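W.,

You were right to be curious about this one. When I first looked at the sequence I had no strong expectations either way, so I just let the prediction run and decided to look at it fresh. Below is the sequence, 101 residues in total, followed by the output.
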Amino acid sequence: MLTFTGFESFLFFYPYIKGPEKQKIKSALLANLFANLSYVYVVLISFLHLTPFQIQYIAEPILYLLKTLPISAFFRVDLVFLSLWIVCVTTSLILYSWFTL
């Protein structure tokens, strides 16, 4: 549900965006391309580092892989990632609920 909020917000704000039509479409396509490439990157990293057996039994493979990063400034990189992820999801939910009003 939240993966489509970018496209829905574009449809909602499209009449209010100033600029040439071609530039509006190009910006939307680039944003969509960036989101899709990030999804593909996450899936490829998961498949390259984990076996099919591990992928079946690990609920969140990205968090599992983040725990293996040796960063001395943070003891738990996955908790930093979860904090940032919660902020992103919350803003998406607020935007999505604002569209429904």
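Here's what jumped out at me. Residues 27 and 33 are 10 Å apart (CA to CA). And, maybe more interesting for your project: The helical segments are 5-13, 21-49, 52-57, 61-66, 77-100.

Coffee later to discuss?

I.
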